[in-house]
Structure prediction request, 263 residues.
Amino acid sequence: MFIKKLLSGLINVVFIIFFIIFFIIPKEKRKFIIFLFIITYFFSTPIGSNVAIYPLEKDYLNQYFLYYSLITNPEKTITMYKDVDKIIVLAGGINDNKELSKDSMSRIITAIIIYKSLKETYNKTPEIIILGGDINKDNQTAKQMKLLIEKFEKAKIREDIDSLDTYQNVLNLKKIINEKDKILVVTSAFHMKRAKITFYNIFNEKFVKYNVIFVPCSFRYKLYLNVYDLIPSFTYFSITNLAIREMIGILYYRIYLKINKNK
Prediction:
């Protein structure tokens, strides 16, 4: 069974191309193709994608089961959020069918669960602020996320459709909150590092340290591995690709924020 699944995973377009190239190029260049094949294979498995995504999510793995704890034991879990005045949700985009992406869905569902738990446990209804427009999608992301919340809760919701990236998200957020607000920020685990870098750059460090709670969701890191995780899949290759893009984004932000701070 395992061998069958392994072979079925290997027999896809990318690996077929590798095999074809291997046999048509000169022998002296085949070592490089073998090297590329091994790298591609490795990062197409959960083991490889874990290696890629771990630097981004490692600081938040202790919150891996937070989402489930909020569902199974909300009263105990929600205690740490009882002083929150506002729930901030960083939008995660929509797909080509104008449907909320996996990240947008996960972030907004996490926000709904936290809001509902605070309401039922402490009779507290913090304002929900959705940050993030979409340059090519008619600003549908925040609007759809708002509509989804309204299906479950009659909450006070504010949406910002003008910000097009994390930096603009946080910059616009600073304009609408005061220094006494306790805020909870929801975003995907892989994106949390960039979000925190931006918050610490735009807000006062003391404010972020004592007034901001960061809640990660939609983890890509796979905690439990087994022999079947040697089977390659485009799903895990896409996670590797996501990790690389996010690391490049973080590097860009560090440079961009440093330049702007020195102006």
About this structure: The chain has two domains: 2-53+235-261, 61-217. Residues 155 and 255 are 38 Å apart (CA to CA). The two ends are 61 Å apart (CA to CA).
